[in-house]
Write a structure and sequence with these properties.
single chain; 773 residues; alpha+beta; 5-stranded antiparallel sheet; 22 helices; 27 strands
């Protein structure tokens, strides 16, 4: 007999089978009962009994249910029976054991049945999740419905959704109910293609390709029901003489759906983040990529499996990371670079993930993209995927791309986006996948604005803290301490994750500004996740935040290390007695790009980054350009860098000019320390000026006798005499300087105009050292 459909129960003790009673040669077999199709239920452990379930002229398909029972096997088996007459029934089969291993159907005389669905034209079975999808035609509208079968033997209608697709030419069609040669051949050439894909993240995609008479292009639609919109793609092979003669196949690849037409095109649609077309990879006309798959028609099976309809071979479809990396190196279009980058990063949890190769590509292609900042995209996307496996809701709460809009066209692709009415969930006891899907739908319906974390609050608070430090205003000691403790947790977390010694000495410097930014980001991101992730323990969220920020800093460090190794930079680059080379300039350029990307996103940098960047700037830039970079905030003068400048550089004319230019640009709290290290008259002069400026800061002019005591002051330069009297008045309240002040008073009558400026500098230097200022 010619088999139509077979299924065995979970215990492997009962077989359901459906047969056509005529062979291909038209010979009647011995079990013929006069009907075209015979459906049997057979006891097979051992073979004890054969029972006829159906004997009809229409074809019958059978499918046992496999409930997710963890503790024990259920004594009752359930069998779905799908009829070509457009109805689905469920049979309840009681199983018992007799005489040891003998299995018997106890209710064979009367099998209870339930009518599951009727009047449908298309159905798909999801074996792994025990779901039945089917479409009803009502007044020329296609209504998609889904039934979930539970382990407690119940079932529910989960949702219904109108689809704006034409199925008028679609004959009765089943998906994943076993291979039917006649149906699949008819589908490939005369039928529209339709299938549904889901995954654990709560995504629900309906992929549809209508029957097309055009041989020059092909159209297909993807209903992203978990996002609330539909995208319709029109693609054509890039070769002018190519013709699309075969239908297309949709393949499930987890976070992606592959759209395949034999020999012509292969598209990877990002179903997790389909908002922007640049997140999907379109390889239209790429014969090398298309050659990876068989040239014969394919049929999609559950679990990323595909069936070669001609050879009968079954394959498992996966993303080839090595091929994607080769494509990434050779990609010319920005959209292809971004899409391939996301494809590779989505595989980050797989063994053999080529993170070092991705980082090397980033470091060498840093200026190659014009539509987006490559470093920003890499930092955001890679950090996002590094924590994605820990919590599925991360996709709603953390940004996954630096690109907000994409207006550029993609060659060979036309796209139309339409909004959809959201699926109506029919039950309220949601769990597992359905809870996640419902969460996605609720997010779309009610969340305004979007919940993605951004650093605007961190940026504002960070600038406030830095501004307050500059003017001497202090926040609560406990508040600042908590922020710095957060930063220490991140650094400790990074040190635990770093297994090999690094070439570049980062994390060894006390960079207070970057530690403040790091700690603020920990605090704000943790509060953001706690606010929106109800029911997740606080300890888990805090560790995820530390991992996220640690990954971000580690990526920056790895970018520098990769470039450092590539250019074989010597350790003496960290000293200031040598001139820079072309390799030094390459690293300086990369650091400048990293700094620009991190500043735009308000992301922290590893402590020590600014010091290394400035040292490279001193190596590579002329003085004018160096000062221009400093004045515009590209180079940040840290205490470590300036101290090294003062110690390593001698007092040649060129170096004196550099040191003076640096010192006058320093914040006061650093300048006071640095000036004492430079044994130079100019340093004394600067200390004098700063000391006088502090004394005059709060000076208020009071009415006084305009006549100056001529017996106490020489009259050659009255403004200077008046200035000295003001300084003496301001210092009179400082008991620690009485001796120095009296000494200065005895000596001031001997000062001339020229001597006063030099003596005043030396005197105020001595005064400043005594007073600690």
């Amino acid at each position: 007999m010619q088999a139509v459909s077979c299924s065995v129960n979970i215990e492997r003790t009962v077989l359901a089978a459906s047969f056509i009673q005529y062979t291909k040669e038209g010979v009647r077999n011995e079990l013929q009962t006069g009907s075209k199709c015979l459906t049997l239920l057979v006891e097979i452990h051992p073979v004890n009994n054969v029972q006829v379930l159906k004997a009809v002229d229409s074809c019958i398909w059978v499918q046992f249910l496999y409930p997710q029972a963890e503790s024990h096997l259920l004594p009752q088996n359930h069998l779905l029976l799908i009829s070509e007459e457009k109805y689905i029934e469920r049979f309840c089969i009681q199983i018992t054991r007799e005489d040891g291993d003998r299995v018997v159907i106890t209710n064979s005389s009367h099998l209870p049945r339930d009518r599951i669905a009727e009047d449908f034209v298309w159905a798909q079975w999801d074996m792994s999740e025990q779901r039945l999808y089917y479409i009803e035609l009502k007044t020329s509208r296609s209504i998609l419905k889904c039934i979930q079968f539970w382990a407690d033997e119940s079932f529910n209608l989960m949702f219904e959704m109108p689809l704006d697709i034409s199925l008028s030419g679609l004959r009765f069609k089943l998906v994943n109910f076993g291979y039917d040669y006649r149906q699949d051949q008819e589908k490939l050439y005369n039928q529209p293609s339709l299938c549904i894909f889901t995954n654990h993240t709560g995504s629900l995609c309906v992929c549809y390709s209508p029957k097309s008479d055009s041989r020059k292009e092909i159209t297909y639609s993807v209903f992203y029901l978990h996002k609330g919109y539909r995208k319709t793609f029109t693609a054509a092979p890039r070769s002018a003489d190519s013709q699309v003669t075969n239908g297309i196949t949709f393949l499930n690849l987890g976070y992606f759906v592959a759209v395949y037409s034999p020999g012509h095109f292969l598209h990877f649609l990002n179903i997790q983040h389909p908002d922007l077309i640049c997140h999907s990879l379109f390889l239209t006309g790429n014969n090398k990529m298309a050659a990876v798959l068989p040239s014969s028609p394919l049929q999609s099976l559950p679990g990323s499996l595909i069936l070669d309809c001609y050879s009968g071979k079954v394959y498992r479809a996966t993303l080839d990371q090595s091929y994607l990396m080769r494509f990434l190196w050779n990609a010319r279009l920005d959209c292809e670079k971004m899409a391939a980058l996301h494809c590779v990063l989505s595989c980050g949890r797989d063994p053999g993930f080529p993170e070092e190769q991705v980082i090397q590509w980033i470091s060498e292609r840093v200026s190659a993209c014009h539509s987006f900042d490559l470093i920003q995209e890499f930092l955001i996307a890679s950090s996002y995927w590094s924590v994605y496996a820990e919590l599925d809701d991360v996709d709603m709460l953390l940004p996954y791309s630096s690109v907000l809009t994409w207006n550029a066209e993609i060659p060979g692709i036309k796209l139309v986006t339409e909004e959809l009415p959201l699926p109506l969930m029919m039950v309220y006891s949601l769990k597992g996948y359905w809870a996640k899907l419902n969460s996605n739908l609720e997010y779309i319906k009610y969340t305004k604005p979007r919940l993605h974390y951004h650093n605007s609050v961190v940026r504002r608070e960070w600038h406030n803290l830095i501004s307050e430090e500059r003017v001497g205003k202090r926040r609560s000691t406990m508040y600042v301490r908590n922020i710095l403790d957060n930063a220490m947790k991140v650094i400790s977390n990074m040190e635990r994750r770093t297994l090999e010694p690094r070439l570049i000495p980062l994390l060894q410097e006390e960079d207070r500004h970057q530690r403040l930014l790091m700690g603020l980001m920990v605090s704000e991101l943790r509060d953001h996740l706690l606010r929106h992730l109800q029911g997740v323990e606080k300890k888990k969220i805090e560790q995820m935040v530390l991992d996220y920020i640690s990954k971000l800093l580690d990526l920056i460090w790895c970018l520098l290390e990769t470039s450092w190794r590539k250019h074989s930079v010597h350790p003496w680059i960290l000293h200031l007695k040598n001139h820079g080379s072309a390799a030094d300039f390459e690293i300086f350029h990369l650091m400048t790009r990293i700094l620009d990307a991190a500043s735009s996103l308000c992301f922290p940098l590893p402590p020590g980054f600014h010091s290394l960047h400035t040292i490279l700037g001193v190596h590579c830039l002329p003085l004018y350009n160096l000062l221009h970079y400093i004045d515009n905030g590209v180079l940040l003068l840290t205490e470590t860098t300036v101290m090294r400048l003062m110690k390593d550089l001698d007092n040649s004319e060129k170096n004196e000019k550099l040191k003076f230019s640096i010192i006058v640009r320093l914040p006061p709290h650093i300048g006071q320390k640095v000036c004492r290290l430079w044994d130079h008259p100019m340093s004394s002069n600067i200390i004098s000026r700063n000391h006088v400026a502090r004394l005059l800061k709060n000076y208020k002019k009071e009415p006084r006798n305009s006549m100056i005591d001529k017996s106490s002051f020489p009259v050659e330069f009255l403004p200077l005499n008046y200035f000295i009297e003001i300084l003496m008045g301001l210092e009179s309240s400082n008991q620690g300087m009485v001796l120095q002040r009296s000494t200065a008073k005895r000596e001031r009558e001997h000062w001339s105009r020229r001597d006063l400026a030099e003596a005043l500098g030396a005197w105020t230097l001595e005064e400043g050292c005594v007073s600690g200022g």
